């Protein structure tokens, strides 16, 4: 059962319209602000026009779910309408559904290369089965020999248990109802906040796993200190071979990938070469180079979340390294404005997810 579609139930009669409109709205915002570039979106309307249209779509859903029609000609004042419990519930039913619809799409752009997503119900845990990646070895045998040494492989199971995360913000529903505050922008910021935290959590789990690669003589071949063309190519060959031929790629931030260059210092490039225009080469020594977008660490001003001193060597076609598990739907808890000294609604958005390492893929790391 696809739980993601169940989360979209409040848009059952115009799901495609709302989902497409918000994806378009979100893609243009992220592209305009340089968060993620290259996302497809319509250029027929300005961002301000799209925001206005998106708010109208969302408010129509609120009216439909709450059964309340609020207009300027209503005998009920706007202030009283904003305090209606049914209206508040409908607002966050819409907010929660949009978060659950769009968040996986946004996350896939940043961590999709090395993560796998699974959806589970409340109170469940996800169990991943990891099958051995190696093959059986072949022995020489005498012509009168019935068998050789017995071989058997065992699967490993890894359990991932989700944990709850929360965001608490002040929301003035009177301003939303009056059109002063944008509900669409509120949802967008909530999505981006959760996406940033999840990206950071997934990357930390991934980098910690790379740090824990075995230091034995055999395992040390997957960890390289310092850049050299020969050692990088050998590592890429090793990862490809032990992933049963799945081609390896060099993955890292732009600052890390700018070090992927030949050892010979006599190379030349012009101003319109790929390295000069992009800051890194897209393909080096027969292996693609893929940039991981940097992320901000908002509780530590001007600190970046991804390491610029590491280049990871992985095979995207092999089994994903990090497992991301969503538990249930997004939920909200709202405190009434009359309980607040400044008459603002304190709203807590709750999202439960878990992250774990479960893979049979071979991965290497180069520490610069």
Walk me through the structure.
By secondary structure, this protein is an alpha+beta fold. The protein has ten helices and 14 strands. Strand 7 and strand 8 form a beta hairpin. Helix 2 packs antiparallel against helix 3 (47-66) and helix 3 (47-66) packs across helix 5 (85-111). The radius of gyration is 26 Å and the shape is elongated. The two termini are 45 Å apart. The model is unreliable at 1-12 (pLDDT under 50).
Keywords:
6-stranded mixed sheet, 368 residues, 4-stranded mixed sheet, disordered N terminus, alpha+beta
Total count of helical runs of at least 4 residues? 10
- Given as residue ranges, the uncertain stretches (5+ residues, pLDDT < 50) are 1-12
Strand percent estimate? 15-25%
Report the principal-axis shape: elongated
Number of strands: 14
Q: Summarize the main sheet.
A: 6 strands, mixed
What is the CA-based Rg, rounded? Answer: 26 Å
Mean pLDDT over all positions: 80
End-to-end gap: 45 Å
Helix content: 25-40%
Class inferred from helices and paired strands: alpha+beta
Write out the strand line-up for the largest beta sheet, numbering strands in chain order.
Answer: 5-14-11-6-8-7
Order of helices and strands: HHHHHEEEEHHEHEHHEEEEEEEE
List the helices and strands and how they pair.
Blueprint lengths: L2 H4 L8 H18 L14 H20 L11 H4 L3 H27 L3 E6 L5 E5 L25 E5 L2 E9 L1 H6 L4 H29 L11 E3 L3 H14 L6 E4 L1 H4 L16 H5 L4 E2 L2 E5 L4 E2 L5 E2 L5 E5 L7 E14 L9 E13 L6 E4 L1
Parallel strand pairs: 1-12, 5-14, 6-8
Antiparallel strand pairs: 2-3, 4-13, 6-11, 7-8, 9-10, 11-14, 12-13
Helix pairs in contact: 2-3, 3-5, 5-7
């Amino acid at each position: 059962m696809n739980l993601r579609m169940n989360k979209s139930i409040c848009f059952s009669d115009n799901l495609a319209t709302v989902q497409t409109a918000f994806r378009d709205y979100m893609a243009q915002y992220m592209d305009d602000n340089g968060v993620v570039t290259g996302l497809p979106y319509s250029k027929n309307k300005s961002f301000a026009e799209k925001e206005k249209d998106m708010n109208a779509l969302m408010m129509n859903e609120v009216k439909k779910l709450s059964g309340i029609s609020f207009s300027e000609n209503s005998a009920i004042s706007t202030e009283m309408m904003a305090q209606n419990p049914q209206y508040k519930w409908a607002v966050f039913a819409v907010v929660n559904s949009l978060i659950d619809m769009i968040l996986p799409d946004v996350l896939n752009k940043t961590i999709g290369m090395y993560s796998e997503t699974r959806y589970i119900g409340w109170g469940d845990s996800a169990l991943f089965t990891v099958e051995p990646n190696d093959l059986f070895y072949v022995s020489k045998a005498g012509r009168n020999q019935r068998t050789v040494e017995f071989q058997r492989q065992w699967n490993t199971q890894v359990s991932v248990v989700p944990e709850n995360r929360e965001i608490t913000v002040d929301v003035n529903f009177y301003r939303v109802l009056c059109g002063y505050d944008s509900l669409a922008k509120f949802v967008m910021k909530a999505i981006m906040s959760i996406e940033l935290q999840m990206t950071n959590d997934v990357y930390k789990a991934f980098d910690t796993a790379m740090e824990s690669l075995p230091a034995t003589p055999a395992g040390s071949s997957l960890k390289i200190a310092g850049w050299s063309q020969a050692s990088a190519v050998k590592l890429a060959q090793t990862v490809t071979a032990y992933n049963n031929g799945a081609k390896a790629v060099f993955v890292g931030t732009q600052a890390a990938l700018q070090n992927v260059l030949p050892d010979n210092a006599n190379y030349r490039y012009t101003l319109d070469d790929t390295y000069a225009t992009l800051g890194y080469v897209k393909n080096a020594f027969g292996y693609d180079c893929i940039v991981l977008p940097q992320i901000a660490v908002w509780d530590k001003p001007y600190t970046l979340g991804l390491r610029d001193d590491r280049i990871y060597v992985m095979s995207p076609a092999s089994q994903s390294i990090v497992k991301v598990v969503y538990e249930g739907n997004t939920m909200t808890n709202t405190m009434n404005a009359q309980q607040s000294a400044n008459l603002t609604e304190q709203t807590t958005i709750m999202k439960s997810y878990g992250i774990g390492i479960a893979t049979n893929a071979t991965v290497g790391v180069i520490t610069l």
